[in-house]
Amino acid sequence: xxxxxxxxxxxxxxxxxxxxxxxxxxxxxxxxxxxxxxxxxxxxxxxxxxxxxxxxxxxxxxxxxxxxxxxxxxxxxxxxxxxxxxxxxxxxxxxxxxxxxxxxxxxxxxxxxxxxxxxxxxxxxxxxxxxxxxxxxxxxxxxxxxxxxxxxxxxxxxxxxxxxxxxxxxxxxxxxxxxxxx
Length: 182
What we know:
By secondary structure, the chain is of the alpha+beta class. Helix content is 20%, strand content 34%. The strands form three sheets. A five-stranded antiparallel sheet has the order 3-1-9-10-11, covered by helices on one side. β5 (76-80) and β6 form a beta hairpin. The longest helix is centred in the middle third of the chain and has 16 residues, at 95-110.
């Protein structure tokens, strides 16, 4: 039985949005390792390695934070050179997303949890990992911006393994809907 896992709150795209992100990703240079489509997401709060007995507390925070609702436009390509990853993200982070993320992080703090990089927020979908030290200039953004209608968020687990990461849905919260637990 698993006693620990890595947990994170995230925006999780619908299948049409996932396909649009995948189409955009094909415009990038074929360097490094592509992120599998099923792993596309935007991390809101990375909780790190925690005991599974902390899950009820994380779920209680999620239950207390209303799900966001708005449109996010992924219209730029960029990279975190030190982390050696390429991503797509918004050229402008909407106020509703900044406010939602701040509320989530504050609520986690009130419950005694400080997410990794709690003060920083650069919403992005990682498309390629393990890039070489040098690479050509990236296109400015996808030919067709990805329009992502956001209407909820999720709590995910990234099992502690040495292989390729995969994610398991633990719970989702939807704007104006009843939550779904996996």
